[in-house]
Design a protein that fits this description.
Number of strands: 2
Shape: rod-shaped
Strand order of the largest sheet: 1-2
Order of helices and strands: HEEH
Distance between the termini: 41 Å
Radius of gyration: 28 Å
Length: 104
């Protein structure tokens, strides 16, 4: 309704003008609701993706804590030896990278 201005400021003379004005007001209201609904839906999806990422990070941190991987040394599949804390950092960095690429 705000796109049409103040509805009381307009002087309507005939029934056709009244019908046209009512249709215009309803159309503007529907278009406004559609746009607001689209924005809310977009924000909801973004929030859902963010929550999913934080859930995945919590699971990863819980796994790392249960296995006590942050202390000691860890051997990678290629035979290299690295600190456990470095492995934890690499895994977290990988999760953040995958999230920034659009997948979880």
């Amino acid at each position: 309704v705000t796109s049409l201005g103040d509805p009381f400021a307009m002087t309507v003379f005939t029934d056709i003008q009244r019908v046209a004005f009512i249709v215009a007001c309803l159309s503007a209201g529907i278009a406004n609701a559609y746009l607001i609904g689209g924005v809310v839906s977009l924000l909801e999806r973004m929030n859902e993706r963010k929550s999913e990422f934080y859930r995945a990070m919590d699971i990863l941190n819980e796994f790392l804590k249960e296995r006590d991987l942050s202390s000691g040394r860890v051997y990678l599949s290629d035979g290299k030896e690295i600190a456990g804390s470095e492995l934890c950092e690499r895994l977290r960095t990988y999760y953040i990278f995958k999230h920034s690429q659009g997948s979880t």
